[in-house]
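To whoever is covering the structure queue this week,

Two jobs came back overnight. Logging them here so there's a record in the thread.

Job A:
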Amino acid sequence: MPKFAAGVVRFQRDVYPHKQEFYDTLSTGQAPEALFITCSDSRIELGTLTQAQPGDLFVVRNAGNIVPPHSNSTGATTAAIEFAVGALKVSHIVICGHTDCGAMKGAVAPDKLDSLPHVRAWLGYARAAVEIVAAIGNDLTDQERMLLLLEQNVILQLQHLKTHPTVAVALATGSLQLHGWVYDIKAGEVYAYDEEIGDFKPVSERYAEQMKEFLSADLHDHG
Protein backbone atom coordinates (compact mmCIF):
# COMPACT_ATOMS: atom_id res chain seq x y z
CA MET A 1 0.00 0.00 0.00
CA PRO A 2 2.82 2.53 0.59
CA LYS A 3 3.62 2.34 -3.13
CA PHE A 4 0.09 3.39 -4.05
CA ALA A 5 -0.08 6.10 -1.38
CA ALA A 6 3.23 7.50 -2.65
CA GLY A 7 1.78 7.48 -6.14
CA VAL A 8 -1.11 9.65 -4.97
CA VAL A 9 1.34 12.09 -3.42
CA ARG A 10 3.34 12.27 -6.66
CA PHE A 11 0.11 12.85 -8.60
CA GLN A 12 -0.85 15.69 -6.27
CA ARG A 13 2.64 17.18 -6.43
CA ASP A 14 3.75 16.61 -10.04
CA VAL A 15 0.65 16.07 -12.19
CA TYR A 16 -2.40 17.85 -10.79
CA PRO A 17 -0.86 21.36 -10.52
CA HIS A 18 0.00 21.32 -14.24
CA LYS A 19 -3.46 20.11 -15.27
CA GLN A 20 -5.67 21.83 -12.72
CA GLU A 21 -7.83 23.50 -15.38
CA PHE A 22 -8.39 20.11 -17.03
CA TYR A 23 -9.44 18.52 -13.74
CA ASP A 24 -11.66 21.52 -12.95
CA THR A 25 -13.53 20.75 -16.18
CA LEU A 26 -13.78 17.05 -15.33
CA SER A 27 -15.19 17.89 -11.91
CA THR A 28 -18.40 19.21 -13.45
CA GLY A 29 -19.38 16.08 -15.40
CA GLN A 30 -18.36 13.44 -17.90
CA ALA A 31 -18.94 12.85 -21.60
CA PRO A 32 -16.96 9.72 -22.54
CA GLU A 33 -16.80 8.69 -26.17
CA ALA A 34 -16.67 4.96 -25.55
CA LEU A 35 -17.63 2.24 -23.12
CA PHE A 36 -14.87 -0.34 -22.73
CA ILE A 37 -15.81 -3.74 -21.33
CA THR A 38 -12.61 -5.53 -20.48
CA CYS A 39 -11.17 -8.09 -18.10
CA SER A 40 -10.36 -7.40 -14.47
CA ASP A 41 -6.84 -8.76 -15.11
CA SER A 42 -4.28 -6.45 -13.49
CA ARG A 43 -2.17 -6.38 -16.66
CA ILE A 44 -4.86 -4.55 -18.66
CA GLU A 45 -4.44 -0.79 -18.29
CA LEU A 46 -6.66 0.93 -20.82
CA GLY A 47 -5.27 4.43 -20.34
CA THR A 48 -1.83 3.18 -21.30
CA LEU A 49 -3.06 0.86 -24.06
CA THR A 50 -5.26 3.45 -25.82
CA GLN A 51 -3.40 6.57 -24.67
CA ALA A 52 -6.77 7.91 -23.54
CA GLN A 53 -7.13 10.75 -21.06
CA PRO A 54 -9.34 10.83 -17.96
CA GLY A 55 -12.91 11.39 -19.10
CA ASP A 56 -12.48 9.62 -22.47
CA LEU A 57 -13.55 6.11 -21.45
CA PHE A 58 -16.35 4.67 -19.36
CA VAL A 59 -14.98 1.33 -18.16
CA VAL A 60 -16.57 -1.92 -17.02
CA ARG A 61 -14.22 -4.65 -15.83
CA ASN A 62 -15.07 -8.19 -14.87
CA ALA A 63 -13.64 -11.70 -15.12
CA GLY A 64 -13.52 -12.61 -18.81
CA ASN A 65 -14.88 -9.33 -20.26
CA ILE A 66 -18.32 -10.89 -20.16
CA VAL A 67 -21.72 -9.35 -20.95
CA PRO A 68 -24.64 -11.38 -19.62
CA PRO A 69 -27.57 -11.50 -22.06
CA HIS A 70 -30.26 -9.05 -21.02
CA SER A 71 -32.78 -10.36 -18.50
CA ASN A 72 -35.01 -9.06 -15.74
CA SER A 73 -32.21 -9.68 -13.24
CA THR A 74 -30.11 -6.64 -12.40
CA GLY A 75 -26.33 -6.84 -12.25
CA ALA A 76 -23.46 -4.36 -12.20
CA THR A 77 -22.46 -4.96 -15.82
CA THR A 78 -26.03 -4.64 -17.09
CA ALA A 79 -26.60 -1.43 -15.13
CA ALA A 80 -23.34 0.08 -16.35
CA ILE A 81 -24.19 -0.68 -19.99
CA GLU A 82 -27.62 0.86 -19.58
CA PHE A 83 -26.17 3.99 -17.99
CA ALA A 84 -23.35 4.38 -20.53
CA VAL A 85 -25.66 4.07 -23.54
CA GLY A 86 -28.92 5.45 -22.18
CA ALA A 87 -27.62 8.35 -20.08
CA LEU A 88 -24.08 9.14 -21.24
CA LYS A 89 -24.86 8.42 -24.90
CA VAL A 90 -21.52 6.81 -25.71
CA SER A 91 -21.06 6.31 -29.44
CA HIS A 92 -18.84 3.22 -29.22
CA ILE A 93 -18.68 0.06 -27.12
CA VAL A 94 -15.52 -2.04 -27.18
CA ILE A 95 -15.31 -5.54 -25.72
CA CYS A 96 -11.63 -6.19 -25.14
CA GLY A 97 -10.27 -9.65 -24.38
CA HIS A 98 -6.61 -10.49 -23.85
CA THR A 99 -4.05 -13.26 -24.09
CA ASP A 100 -3.23 -15.50 -21.11
CA CYS A 101 -6.72 -14.92 -19.74
CA GLY A 102 -7.29 -16.86 -16.53
CA ALA A 103 -11.05 -16.58 -16.91
CA MET A 104 -10.99 -18.29 -20.30
CA LYS A 105 -8.70 -21.00 -18.91
CA GLY A 106 -11.31 -21.53 -16.21
CA ALA A 107 -14.13 -21.58 -18.75
CA VAL A 108 -12.67 -24.64 -20.48
CA ALA A 109 -12.11 -26.45 -17.16
CA PRO A 110 -15.08 -25.57 -14.91
CA ASP A 111 -14.55 -28.78 -12.91
CA LYS A 112 -11.45 -27.14 -11.43
CA LEU A 113 -13.47 -24.24 -10.05
CA ASP A 114 -15.36 -26.07 -7.30
CA SER A 115 -13.77 -23.79 -4.68
CA LEU A 116 -14.83 -20.70 -6.69
CA PRO A 117 -18.56 -21.29 -7.27
CA HIS A 118 -19.36 -17.69 -8.24
CA VAL A 119 -16.54 -17.64 -10.79
CA ARG A 120 -17.73 -20.96 -12.23
CA ALA A 121 -21.30 -19.69 -12.55
CA TRP A 122 -20.18 -16.39 -14.10
CA LEU A 123 -18.08 -18.16 -16.73
CA GLY A 124 -21.20 -19.99 -17.86
CA TYR A 125 -21.84 -16.88 -19.97
CA ALA A 126 -18.86 -17.97 -22.10
CA ARG A 127 -20.11 -21.53 -22.58
CA ALA A 128 -21.16 -21.09 -26.22
CA ALA A 129 -17.65 -19.89 -27.11
CA VAL A 130 -16.14 -22.92 -25.38
CA GLU A 131 -18.44 -25.27 -27.29
CA ILE A 132 -17.67 -23.59 -30.63
CA VAL A 133 -13.95 -24.12 -30.07
CA ALA A 134 -14.57 -27.74 -29.08
CA ALA A 135 -16.50 -28.25 -32.32
CA ILE A 136 -14.14 -26.56 -34.79
CA GLY A 137 -10.76 -26.53 -33.08
CA ASN A 138 -9.78 -30.19 -33.05
CA ASP A 139 -6.90 -29.73 -35.48
CA LEU A 140 -5.41 -26.75 -33.64
CA THR A 141 -2.58 -26.62 -31.12
CA ASP A 142 -3.40 -25.74 -27.52
CA GLN A 143 -2.16 -22.20 -28.10
CA GLU A 144 -4.24 -21.82 -31.26
CA ARG A 145 -7.34 -23.16 -29.50
CA MET A 146 -6.91 -20.65 -26.70
CA LEU A 147 -6.59 -17.77 -29.17
CA LEU A 148 -9.69 -19.02 -30.96
CA LEU A 149 -11.53 -19.11 -27.62
CA LEU A 150 -10.49 -15.53 -26.83
CA GLU A 151 -11.82 -14.43 -30.20
CA GLN A 152 -15.03 -16.46 -30.00
CA ASN A 153 -15.72 -15.16 -26.52
CA VAL A 154 -15.42 -11.56 -27.71
CA ILE A 155 -17.79 -12.30 -30.61
CA LEU A 156 -20.24 -14.03 -28.25
CA GLN A 157 -20.27 -11.11 -25.83
CA LEU A 158 -20.93 -8.73 -28.74
CA GLN A 159 -23.99 -10.86 -29.52
CA HIS A 160 -25.08 -10.66 -25.88
CA LEU A 161 -24.70 -6.87 -26.00
CA LYS A 162 -27.27 -6.62 -28.77
CA THR A 163 -29.93 -8.11 -26.48
CA HIS A 164 -29.76 -5.08 -24.15
CA PRO A 165 -32.63 -2.68 -24.98
CA THR A 166 -30.62 0.56 -24.83
CA VAL A 167 -27.96 -0.98 -27.08
CA ALA A 168 -30.55 -2.35 -29.52
CA VAL A 169 -32.21 1.06 -29.83
CA ALA A 170 -28.90 2.90 -30.30
CA LEU A 171 -27.81 0.43 -32.97
CA ALA A 172 -31.14 0.77 -34.76
CA THR A 173 -30.88 4.56 -34.80
CA GLY A 174 -27.25 4.53 -35.91
CA SER A 175 -25.90 6.31 -32.84
CA LEU A 176 -23.76 3.42 -31.61
CA GLN A 177 -21.05 1.17 -33.01
CA LEU A 178 -19.81 -2.08 -31.46
CA HIS A 179 -16.20 -3.28 -31.55
CA GLY A 180 -14.44 -6.49 -30.52
CA TRP A 181 -10.75 -6.43 -29.59
CA VAL A 182 -8.17 -8.95 -28.42
CA TYR A 183 -5.02 -7.57 -26.79
CA ASP A 184 -1.83 -9.61 -27.18
CA ILE A 185 0.08 -8.67 -24.03
CA LYS A 186 3.46 -10.07 -25.11
CA ALA A 187 3.43 -8.54 -28.59
CA GLY A 188 1.78 -5.25 -27.62
CA GLU A 189 -0.63 -5.79 -30.52
CA VAL A 190 -4.39 -5.34 -30.53
CA TYR A 191 -6.57 -7.19 -33.00
CA ALA A 192 -10.02 -5.85 -33.92
CA TYR A 193 -12.93 -7.88 -35.25
CA ASP A 194 -13.96 -7.15 -38.83
CA GLU A 195 -17.55 -8.34 -39.17
CA GLU A 196 -17.43 -8.19 -42.97
CA ILE A 197 -14.75 -10.87 -43.20
CA GLY A 198 -15.53 -12.61 -39.90
CA ASP A 199 -11.96 -12.34 -38.66
CA PHE A 200 -9.64 -10.19 -36.56
CA LYS A 201 -7.15 -7.67 -37.98
CA PRO A 202 -4.51 -5.48 -36.31
CA VAL A 203 -6.13 -2.19 -35.28
CA SER A 204 -3.74 -0.37 -37.62
CA GLU A 205 -5.44 -2.17 -40.52
CA ARG A 206 -8.98 -2.39 -39.18
CA TYR A 207 -9.23 1.36 -38.56
CA ALA A 208 -6.73 2.59 -41.15
CA GLU A 209 -9.11 5.01 -42.84
CA GLN A 210 -10.55 6.40 -39.61
CA MET A 211 -7.10 6.94 -38.09
CA LYS A 212 -5.61 9.02 -40.92
CA GLU A 213 -6.67 12.35 -39.42
CA PHE A 214 -5.34 11.49 -35.97
CA LEU A 215 -2.06 10.03 -37.20
CA SER A 216 -1.44 13.06 -39.44
CA ALA A 217 -1.95 15.38 -36.49
CA ASP A 218 0.37 13.23 -34.37
CA LEU A 219 3.11 13.33 -37.01
CA HIS A 220 2.70 17.12 -37.27
CA ASP A 221 3.04 17.50 -33.49
CA HIS A 222 6.22 15.42 -33.44
CA GLY A 223 7.64 16.70 -36.70
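Job B:
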Amino acid sequence: MFKLDQRLENDTFEVAEILDCKVLVINNSSVPWFIIVPFTEKTEWYQLDDSVQYNINSIMNKLSVFLEKEYKVHKLNIATLGNVVKQMHIHVVGRFKTDPAWPAPVWGNLKTKEYTAQEKEIIIKKTLKVLEEIEL
Protein backbone atom coordinates (compact mmCIF):
# COMPACT_ATOMS: atom_id res chain seq x y z
CA MET A 1 0.00 0.00 0.00
CA PHE A 2 1.31 3.45 -0.94
CA LYS A 3 2.25 5.82 1.88
CA LEU A 4 3.74 9.24 1.23
CA ASP A 5 7.01 9.87 3.07
CA GLN A 6 6.37 12.03 6.14
CA ARG A 7 8.91 14.67 5.07
CA LEU A 8 7.19 15.09 1.70
CA GLU A 9 3.83 15.24 3.43
CA ASN A 10 5.09 17.93 5.82
CA ASP A 11 6.70 20.10 3.12
CA THR A 12 4.07 19.96 0.37
CA PHE A 13 0.44 20.24 -0.55
CA GLU A 14 -1.30 17.97 -3.03
CA VAL A 15 -2.48 19.05 -6.47
CA ALA A 16 -3.64 15.77 -7.98
CA GLU A 17 -3.34 12.04 -8.38
CA ILE A 18 -2.81 11.16 -12.03
CA LEU A 19 -1.24 8.25 -13.93
CA ASP A 20 -0.48 6.42 -10.66
CA CYS A 21 1.43 9.40 -9.29
CA LYS A 22 0.86 12.15 -6.77
CA VAL A 23 1.61 15.67 -7.95
CA LEU A 24 2.63 17.91 -5.08
CA VAL A 25 3.85 21.48 -4.63
CA ILE A 26 6.59 22.36 -2.16
CA ASN A 27 4.96 24.81 0.25
CA ASN A 28 7.52 27.54 -0.38
CA SER A 29 6.50 30.27 -2.80
CA SER A 30 10.10 31.47 -3.24
CA VAL A 31 10.23 29.35 -6.42
CA PRO A 32 7.59 27.25 -8.21
CA TRP A 33 8.51 23.71 -7.22
CA PHE A 34 6.59 20.52 -8.03
CA ILE A 35 7.19 17.00 -6.79
CA ILE A 36 6.00 13.93 -8.69
CA VAL A 37 5.71 10.80 -6.54
CA PRO A 38 4.91 7.54 -8.36
CA PHE A 39 2.97 4.90 -6.47
CA THR A 40 5.86 2.45 -6.21
CA GLU A 41 8.21 0.92 -3.69
CA LYS A 42 11.12 1.23 -6.13
CA THR A 43 13.64 3.93 -5.31
CA GLU A 44 15.70 4.34 -8.49
CA TRP A 45 14.68 5.56 -11.95
CA TYR A 46 16.18 2.57 -13.79
CA GLN A 47 14.08 0.19 -11.65
CA LEU A 48 10.81 1.63 -12.94
CA ASP A 49 8.95 -0.09 -15.76
CA ASP A 50 9.00 1.75 -19.08
CA SER A 51 5.29 2.52 -18.74
CA VAL A 52 5.83 4.17 -15.34
CA GLN A 53 8.76 6.20 -16.72
CA TYR A 54 6.55 7.23 -19.64
CA ASN A 55 3.77 8.39 -17.30
CA ILE A 56 6.18 10.36 -15.13
CA ASN A 57 7.74 11.88 -18.23
CA SER A 58 4.30 12.96 -19.46
CA ILE A 59 3.58 14.70 -16.16
CA MET A 60 7.07 16.19 -15.99
CA ASN A 61 6.82 17.62 -19.50
CA LYS A 62 3.42 19.22 -18.85
CA LEU A 63 4.69 20.78 -15.62
CA SER A 64 7.84 22.02 -17.37
CA VAL A 65 5.89 23.73 -20.15
CA PHE A 66 3.56 25.19 -17.52
CA LEU A 67 6.50 26.62 -15.55
CA GLU A 68 8.00 28.18 -18.66
CA LYS A 69 4.73 29.70 -19.89
CA GLU A 70 3.10 30.68 -16.59
CA TYR A 71 6.15 31.76 -14.60
CA LYS A 72 8.59 32.68 -17.39
CA VAL A 73 11.36 30.77 -15.60
CA HIS A 74 14.95 31.16 -16.76
CA LYS A 75 15.86 27.52 -16.10
CA LEU A 76 14.24 24.26 -15.11
CA ASN A 77 15.87 21.99 -12.52
CA ILE A 78 14.62 18.41 -12.76
CA ALA A 79 16.09 15.82 -10.44
CA THR A 80 15.64 12.56 -8.57
CA LEU A 81 17.97 12.86 -5.61
CA GLY A 82 16.63 10.74 -2.79
CA ASN A 83 19.58 11.37 -0.49
CA VAL A 84 17.30 12.41 2.39
CA VAL A 85 13.89 11.13 1.25
CA LYS A 86 14.48 7.64 -0.12
CA GLN A 87 10.96 7.35 -1.59
CA MET A 88 11.05 7.80 -5.38
CA HIS A 89 10.16 11.38 -6.19
CA ILE A 90 11.03 13.79 -8.99
CA HIS A 91 11.63 17.49 -8.44
CA VAL A 92 10.51 19.91 -11.17
CA VAL A 93 11.70 23.35 -10.10
CA GLY A 94 11.38 26.64 -11.91
CA ARG A 95 14.42 28.85 -11.38
CA PHE A 96 14.97 32.55 -11.90
CA LYS A 97 18.23 34.47 -12.07
CA THR A 98 16.66 36.63 -9.36
CA ASP A 99 15.55 33.85 -7.00
CA PRO A 100 17.07 33.85 -3.49
CA ALA A 101 19.27 30.80 -4.14
CA TRP A 102 20.46 31.50 -7.72
CA PRO A 103 22.74 30.04 -9.02
CA ALA A 104 23.13 27.60 -6.12
CA PRO A 105 20.75 24.64 -5.69
CA VAL A 106 17.42 25.35 -4.02
CA TRP A 107 17.87 22.54 -1.49
CA GLY A 108 18.82 24.10 1.82
CA ASN A 109 19.28 27.55 0.28
CA LEU A 110 15.79 29.04 0.51
CA LYS A 111 14.01 30.64 3.42
CA THR A 112 10.51 29.27 3.79
CA LYS A 113 7.77 31.52 2.47
CA GLU A 114 4.59 29.43 2.64
CA TYR A 115 1.84 29.92 0.09
CA THR A 116 -1.28 31.70 1.30
CA ALA A 117 -4.57 29.83 1.05
CA GLN A 118 -5.47 31.94 -2.00
CA GLU A 119 -2.11 31.27 -3.67
CA LYS A 120 -2.54 27.53 -3.07
CA GLU A 121 -5.99 27.61 -4.62
CA ILE A 122 -4.68 29.43 -7.71
CA ILE A 123 -1.69 27.14 -8.33
CA ILE A 124 -3.82 24.02 -7.81
CA LYS A 125 -6.48 25.26 -10.23
CA LYS A 126 -3.95 26.20 -12.91
CA THR A 127 -1.97 23.00 -12.52
CA LEU A 128 -5.09 20.82 -12.69
CA LYS A 129 -6.00 22.49 -15.98
CA VAL A 130 -2.56 21.64 -17.38
CA LEU A 131 -2.67 18.05 -16.12
CA GLU A 132 -6.10 17.53 -17.72
CA GLU A 133 -4.34 17.86 -21.09
CA ILE A 134 -2.45 14.59 -20.51
CA GLU A 135 -3.91 11.78 -22.56
CA LEU A 136 -4.82 8.93 -20.23
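Note for Job B: The mean pLDDT is 96.

Please reply-all if you pick these up so we don't duplicate work.
Q.
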